[in-house]
Amino acid sequence: MRAISRVLPRTNAGHHHGTEPKESAELPIIDCGLYIEGVREPGTVDYREALREAEKHHNSFVWLGLKEPTEAHMDELAEVFGLHPLAVEDAVVAHQRPKLERYGETMFVVLKTARYVEHPALTATSEVVETGDVMLFIGKHFVLTVRHGDACHLSGVRADLDNSHEDLLKQGPWAVFHAVCDNIVDRYVEVAEAIEDDIDEIEADVFSSGATDVRRIYNLKREVIEFKRAVIPLARPLEALHSGQVGGVPLEIRRYIRDIADHVRQVTEMQLGFDDLLNSALQADLAQIGVQQNNDMRKISAWVAIAAVPTMLAGIYGMNFDHMPELRWAYGYPAILLVMAGVCLLLYRMFRRSGWL
Prior knowledge:
Elements: E1 29-36, E2 39-40, H1 47-54, E3 60-67, H2 71-81, H3 85-93, E4 99-103, E5 106-116, E6 129-138, E7 142-148, H4 155-164, H5 166-169, H6 173-208, H7 214-231, H8 235-242, H9 251-316, H10 332-354
Parallel strand pairs: 3-7
Antiparallel strand pairs: 1-2, 1-3, 4-5, 5-6, 6-7
């Protein structure tokens, strides 16, 4: 359900006090919902009206979801929700590392999303991992989710919470953080398992059919590095949340976050294994290339040795001296050809027996 925001006068409730808001382009709102005691109020709501209503109740909040807002959009929201300019700037620019920052009573969280890109065959230019960003502004009576990219959609997360997790939603805005983060980390696990299949495919190519395209391995290593940048920095914010270092997080939500942190550690360990496997595959591939080059050089050397025999004999008898053995012999020409052929055949059999040919 897409909520169309309306520009209305603001009252002196909460953060949104002062003069009339500026007119701006339509906000890129995906959905906006008002939750009271864990239950979403029916109908389409305006985020200003919803915030005013949420501040009237003890256990209520507004969940506003946006996709790729502009600076003007975020400035408008900053006036209403009291967002810090530095956090607003990060939400507009995106491409941030996963982090957790407090600005007054508002927490700002950056999460990296990841999605595995299906491809018929792994090539040197295949895009394996697509990444994006999800930022969350978490206040006492609101949570804003700002999404960049299409690596992870949050509509399913909202629908699942609305339909079957009333008890969790009673925990307030941090319940939304848990649901969003849990969905993103579940995608991490899916991506890791799919990358593992790609590595198995590369290993099979290296050890069954000989040397493969090294560029495929380097490309997959780059994709793994991009994936690691999304996962590894998330461990520290999750540790701070479930260990109680961040105030305002309900105890029940902290228990759920501990489970998410375990999944992040699992994916991190898988990524470390990817590095070892890809390095081993790369070394094996380079070794295969070295062995192939060595075999080629041995074959070339063997043929050069065989060709040297007739070349040497022809060179000797081409010096045109008057006194040379068998120079005037009637059968000298066929005899020397026979010697050439016999020696070449003997060398060929010797090289074949030794594996050079």
